[in-house]
Amino acid sequence: MKLNKKKGIILASSVISVILIGVFFVIYETGPYDKNNGQDIVVDIPMGSTIGNIADILKENNLIKNKFIFEINFKLRNNYSNLKSGKYLLNQSLSNSDIINKLASGEMYQDGIKITIPEGSTSNEIISLLVKNELGEKSDYQKLVSSPSDFYDDFEFLNQKDIKTLEGFLYPSTYYFEEDAKPKDIIKEMLKLFKRNYTEELQKKQKERNMTLQEVVNLASIVEKEAVIDEDRPIIASVFYNRLDKDMPLQSDATLQYIFEERKKSMTYNDLKIDSPYNTYIQKGLPPTPIANPSIKSIKAVLEPSDTDYLYFVASIDGGNVYSKTYEEHKKNVEQYRKDRDKRNKELEEKSKKDK
């Protein structure tokens, strides 16, 4: 009996080991081909392509590791009916799921002037980028951004009383525009991509939270500017929700930065006293408009926040944040951050002297 029991334990352990190895294998095979390589690769998916054809094309371009695993993943996600043929801009840092989403989105490659709008860009930064690439005049873009009503016919979601600007709705992505593209058409492309990515599922979550679209994008823009790593986004969102619930000011440096034409390295004590609706150190609630154009990741974080009791956070020198429930804890965390920062700066300074 003891021998059989021992054999059973060994067999169970072996089965578990095989399962774990299988899980790790699948995770590895569905991950990015090379997470550090974001160089653009244009792939052409012909009309009538099967999943097998697509997998062959992606494997030939070193975009996936395993054709069989990719095909299974594709079928499980049930996106085949949404697949659109054409040219797509991909890279090796994308996972299988990212690639599938791209192929199902219709977000295709085009010839023309390439414009990449980073996540969290302000409308002024976007306008500067477009003007720099000779795609129109600054004044024309400023007028369009401040006139959502000009786009009501094409984008019904903008026709809401609290949406006074397109700040927040200019979707950050890579675009290709013709040299003679008109400013209004360029703005339309960004709004189209926002509309496409703000899915019915997200709209449903918005309604469940009893929020307007403006409120969601507004808060998401603050989360976007405060977050450094993706894991922090839903936690930061929870901190701001907790503050709003307690009628506390958000006290976000990001909203204060929005007042200035150029970003400041750090806020001063006098900055905290500036009389502005964007100064959330003295004004309660959300600022009047979004302060940037957030990624879909920040929007999802606002609609699916973490469940926490945190009211404060401070950056850590490792890139994330340290959270606290009380002001006393927060003061200790701030002091620790300053010590760690000063220590690191001193080490870097000493290293720089040695290298010279």
Question: Brief description of this entry?
Answer:
Strand 5 (312-315) and strand 6 form a beta hairpin. The model has no long low-confidence stretch (mean pLDDT 87). The protein has helices spanning 2-30, 51-60, 67-77, 96-105, 123-132, 138-145, 183-197, 200-208, 213-226, 233-245, 253-257, 296-303, 327-355, and strands at 41-45, 86-90, 113-116, 174-177, 312-315, 321-324.
Structure, explained:
Helix 2 (51-60) packs across helix 3 (67-77), helix 9 (213-226) packs across helix 10 (233-245) and helix 10 packs across helix 12 (296-303). A hairpin with a 5-residue loop joins strand 5 (312-315) and strand 6 (321-324). 48% of the residues lie in helices and 7% in strands. It is mainly α and 356 residues long. The protein starts with a helix and ends with a helix. Strands 1-2 form a two-stranded antiparallel sheet. A two-stranded antiparallel sheet has the order 3-4. The model has no long low-confidence stretch (mean pLDDT 87).
